[in-house]
Amino acid sequence: MTRPIDQAATISGLTKVQFIALMAMLMSINAISIDIMLPGLQEIGASLGVADENHRQYVITAYLLGMGFAQLFFGPLSDRFGRRAPLLGGLALYGVSALAIVFVPTFGALLFLRLVQGIGAAATRVITVSIVRDVYGGRQMAEIMSLVMMVFMIVPVIAPSIGQLIMLFSEWHMIFVVIALFAVAVALPVALRLRETLAPANRRPFTASSILAGFRIVLTNRLALFYTLATSALLGALFGFINSAQQILVGVYGLGVWFPAVFAAFAGMMAVASFTNSRLVRTFGMRALSHAALLGFTLASFIWMSASLIGPLPLPLFMLLHAATMFQFGLIAANFNAMAMEPLGHVAGTASSVLGFTQTIGGGIIGAFIGQAFNNSVTPLAVGFFTVAVVALVCVLIAEGGKLFKPHNPAG
Predict the structure, then answer these.
(1) Entry pTM
(2) How many other C-beta atoms lie within 10 A of the C-beta of residue 52?
(3) Cα distance between residue 26 and residue 23, in whole Å
(4) pLDDT tens readout for residues 44-92
(5) C-beta separation of 149 from 25 below 8 A
(6) CB atoms < 10 A from the CB of 185, how many?
(7) C-beta of residue 11 within 8 angstroms of C-beta of residue 140
(8) Which of 169, 184, 197, 243 is 20 to 30 A (C-alpha) from 390?
(9) Is 12-399 CATH 3.30.70.260?
């Protein structure tokens, strides 16, 4: 049964505002791990002898692969031992690996440590969603996740600017020192303030059979599976843009030091959309908002793709069309995740790990393909966005039995 918000907040030992802020900080680990280094990718490649500029994108891909696969471990672990201990362990691994990157001699060593860093960060991704599901359900969960995503989106807004500032006064190694300090800043309130949110009665044994049974529950739930696949496809578009953002905004459009500002504007659109969703979801429901946004995402990406195939896109038109897709994504993400998690509260940790693994690995691979297709134009990115939009729409239609906009219950 869905708990009243004021009662639910007491489970964590935090007020609603404190809870949202801490969950957003935990989710921001992944954003800062990627976005703060975008201004430094060129110098990282030059410093470590990376000749092909597309290969610099592997700094992001390695991190996503580590984070994706490790979620399969952290989810069941948190269902057995609770949320706090695995979360703090992951944060420790994340921070130590960030510091170790400062001393890497080769690009291969950097990629390995980025993989390890992603493994540590997996705890923040999967356990944060599990904690939110422990405390909230239904439209309340969608509202809270929207607010978390809104605060979380502040990081992509400011992280590239922080990275640019570091590059102006220091060099790329200092970026990873800042990342390590951020890990400490997040770990302290978790250790000192956050209560254990997993009730002892809901703990599951950490055995192979129990883990496989939990995975079977997730993978045989049509709503959970296909909303997860839809999110994976759309995340692929987002990762594809992140992978090639520096090459497009600096290389194609020549923005130079203005790159962080334009990147921040796109992230800001998602933050505005997440806030809008948090205000509207209780009234209109998750399906009405997210399904309309998915159709809008598909239409905007189709116009973007068609225009890019005709000829080079002027910067204002590119910004307008890309901003339109980012706004729609902000309306989709929290709702799709909430709808995927809603029927799986009894296995929240395992469910979150399977969903997170699928979304991160699937989205990371799709994003890598889109990023590696970069050819000094925005056309591959536009084609990628429209393709994943169609795939996501098909997945949602399968999940909903061919019907959009139909609430399953008053909380849908």
Answers:
(1) 0.77
(2) 10
(3) 5
(4) 988 898 878 888 889 988 998 998 889 888 888 888 889 999 999 999 9
(5) no
(6) 11
(7) no
(8) 243
(9) no
